[in-house]
């Protein structure tokens, strides 16, 4: 089936598995009062065998139940009127209620002129039904047929998670005949074609009708497969995947890494996304968008193709918009995102500047940080400039052992510093751009060697492990920066006053206002630190446990004091010992290598679902524990930035309480005392 004019019924026969089609179309309920319009509809019915311009129903494609919305262009040019619009909306709503994917196959001249504004407004109703379907997390796929124009293209024809188009199909907003009638000249050739729209990024791929069923089936298999692959702990020390102590880490220089990642025969994104495991949604530019299976976990892959960039096709604002569209696709379908970074840098040109390169880098970075699905980034080779930065933030970060990340290629940095390129190798070493340096300072989580015949297979295995072990977003991880050298514990805690009953405090009395590590708190030793803070200048990275010259082990914790505009304090009710059933403020243990401020943000998010910004340090508490352990709790004042309050992690409940309500709760010992002492009680 290669001709452009394909009937709705014949297309259904080609796409849907044999004997699985079930029509959902109820009889048309209205009859026009206008004689001419009524006669036209009757002739259309006789000619096409269809009762309206749209057929809807459910059938299996590759064994997967799928709802189809198919235009019949032979029926009044596939135009959408009252009855056709209601039919489309009904099918979409039924698909949403049953949790089924939708494949829309429009071929239409737009809205039905005989019905005027009433028909025109059907586009709003259909768009609302599409948005509701996508918001519920179900796939909405589009195949644009010849021709698709007007309001149909400007509504449900342009809202697909993935959009394919028929070869040589006329696709555009303004019909050529209307344009010529209005302006007295024909519309330019080659503009409103499927192929041109694909080049412009408005269509993902041009696909023959005969190839549609297999492509749709594979796509639905990937996006609808349930569950995750077998769990492998992230950061595994398995030597097959972790090359931290490899010969490369010992001997390779930064310039060696730069040179290695530029080699012509180095494998890249094309090898990583081999055909058996992936659906290539877009691969006609330097930024690719794909769906790929990693050991049972389907991820949306947004990656940079090194070969197209090496040939001179660098990352442009349009390519970054492809990346952002991939993030939106993942968010809609609840799929994790894998970004693959391999770029010598974005295109630096007048056209890129005028098209908003800097703006797109900023929005791409922000979108990735704000995604509410798990994210993993893979630094596969080169990582130069904003094009690399835009794909780097992630919950987990994997890097090729010879990968590198820098503000500019080393030659560019050399020009800025030395006004020549000769110092590029020296600057590459000085800037700490290598993957091994990034691993050492906590910027990346894991290295993998891409060399050898099994290098790419090993990379896919490591990515599969990371995706399987990354169950929820952690915004603080996405925005982490290289941590500072660890300081001695005495630099982090400056005792100002000590409670007389510190040493003999009972378990219930060992409680800080912050809910400390594992919910512990107390009023044992307090250092007031009321200064305002800016950024992360006042915080340092701290280990989970440390010892002061053989003294007690110290376990570091954090907490957050947060008031709303109604003078209510955010509290959580602990669900686990030792404070089970008691109310305190959000907080918990600091993970190894994590900054204190990042721990506050992470713990608050995990326990309450709220994203917060830290605004000031409130106090530090030493809490003696069992077995020579001292819990060193750093408490912060924070404010809510976004999110919806709910109890999570080890919190049995969470809520906002004013002073009166707090008096009726079973609070952590010393909570109100701490708040009053440091002027935080309202």
From the helix content, strand content and strand pairing, which structural class follows? alpha/beta
Number of helices: 26
Could you report the average pLDDT, rounded to the nearest whole number? 83
Shape: globular
Largest sheet: 7 strands, mixed
Indicate the proportion of strand residues.
15-25%
In percent, how helical is the residue content?
25-40%
Please compute the radius of gyration using only Cα atoms: 30 Å
Strand order of the largest sheet: 1-2-3-4-5-7-9
User: End-to-end span in angstroms?
Assistant: 73 Å
What is the count of β-strands?
A: 26
Report on the architecture of this protein.
With 682 residues, this protein is α/β, with parallel strands linked by helices. The protein has 26 helices and 26 strands. A 7-stranded mixed beta sheet has the order 1-2-3-4-5-7-9, sandwiched between helices. A hairpin with a 4-residue loop joins strand 24 (610-624) and strand 25. Residues 226-251 and 484-551 have low confidence and may be disordered.
């Amino acid at each position: 089936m290669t001709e452009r004019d394909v009937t709705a019924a014949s297309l259904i026969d080609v796409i849907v598995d044999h004997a699985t089609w079930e029509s959902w179309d109820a009889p048309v309920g209205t009859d026009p009062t206008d004689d001419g319009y009524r006669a036209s509809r009757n002739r259309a019915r006789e000619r096409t065998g269809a009762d309206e311009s749209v057929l809807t129903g459910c059938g299996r494609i590759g064994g997967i139940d799928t709802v189809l919305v198919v235009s019949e262009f032979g029926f009044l040019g596939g135009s959408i009127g009252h009855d056709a619009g209601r039919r489309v909306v009904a099918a979409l709503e039924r698909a949403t209620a049953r949790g089924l994917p939708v494949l829309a196959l429009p071929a239409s001249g737009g809205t039905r002129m005989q019905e005027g504004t009433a028909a025109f407004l059907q586009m709003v109703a259909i768009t609302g039904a599409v948005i509701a379907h996508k918001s519920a997390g179900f796939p909405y796929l589009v195949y644009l047929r010849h021709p698709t124009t007007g309001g149909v293209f400007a509504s449900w024809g342009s809202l697909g998670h993935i959009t394919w188009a028929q070869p040589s199909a006329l696709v555009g907003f303004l019909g050529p005949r209307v344009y010529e009638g209005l302006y007295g000249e024909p519309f330019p050739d080659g503009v409103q074609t499927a192929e041109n729209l694909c080049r412009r990024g408005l269509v993902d791929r041009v696909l023959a009708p005969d190839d549609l069923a297999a492509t749709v089936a594979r796509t639905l298999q990937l996006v609808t497969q349930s569950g995750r692959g077998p769990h492998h702990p992230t950061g595994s020390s398995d030597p097959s995947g972790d090359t931290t102590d490899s010969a490369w880490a010992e001997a390779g220089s930064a310039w060696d890494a730069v040179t290695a990642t530029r080699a012509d025969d180095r494998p890249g994104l094309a090898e990583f996304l081999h055909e058996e495991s992936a659906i290539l949604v877009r691969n006609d530019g330097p930024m690719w968008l794909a769906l790929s299976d990693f050991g049972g976990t389907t991820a949306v892959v947004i990656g940079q193709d090194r070969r197209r960039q090496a040939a001179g096709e660098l990352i442009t604002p349009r390519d970054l918009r492809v990346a952002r569209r991939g993030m939106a696709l993942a968010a809609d379908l609840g799929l994790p995102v894998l970004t693959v970074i391999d770029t010598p840098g974005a295109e630096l040109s007048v056209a890129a500047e005028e098209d908003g390169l800097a703006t797109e880098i900023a929005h791409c970075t922000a979108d990735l940080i704000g995604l509410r699905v798990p994210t993993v980034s893979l630094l596969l080779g080169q990582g130069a400039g904003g094009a690399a930065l835009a794909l780097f933030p992630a919950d987990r970060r994997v890097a090729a052992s010879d990968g590198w990340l820098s503000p500019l290629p080393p030659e560019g940095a050399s020009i800025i510093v030395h006004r020549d390129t000769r110092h590029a190798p020296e600057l590459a070493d000085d800037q700490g751009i290598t993957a091994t340096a990034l691993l050492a300072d906590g910027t990346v989580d894991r290295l993998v060697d891409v060399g050898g015949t099994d290098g790419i297979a090993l990379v896919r295995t490591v990515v599969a492990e990371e995706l399987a072990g990354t169950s929820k977003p952690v915004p603080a991880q996405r925005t982490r920066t290289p941590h500072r050298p660890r300081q001695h514990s005495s630099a982090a805690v400056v005792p100002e006053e000590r409670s007389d009953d510190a040493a003999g405090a009972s378990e219930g009395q060992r409680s800080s206002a912050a809910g400390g590590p594992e919910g512990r708190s107390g009023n044992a030793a307090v250092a007031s630190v009321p200064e305002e803070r800016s950024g992360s200048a006042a915080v340092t990275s701290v280990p989970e446990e440390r010892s002061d010259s053989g003294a007690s082990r110290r376990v570091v914790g954090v907490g957050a004091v947060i008031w709303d505009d109604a003078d209510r304090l955010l509290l959580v009710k602990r669900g686990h010992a030792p404070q089970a059933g008691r109310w305190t403020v959000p907080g918990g243990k600091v993970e190894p290598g994590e900054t204190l401020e990042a721990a506050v943000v992470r713990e608050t998010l995990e326990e309450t679902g709220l994203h917060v910004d830290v605004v000031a340090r409130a106090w530090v508490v030493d809490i003696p524990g069992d077995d020579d352990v001292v819990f060193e709790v750093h408490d912060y004042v924070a404010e809510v930035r976004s999110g919806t309050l709910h109890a999570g992690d080890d919190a049995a409940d969470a809520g906002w309480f004013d002073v009166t309500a707090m008096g009726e709760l079973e609070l952590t010992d010393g909570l109100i005392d701490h708040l009053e002492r440091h002027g935080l009680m309202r």
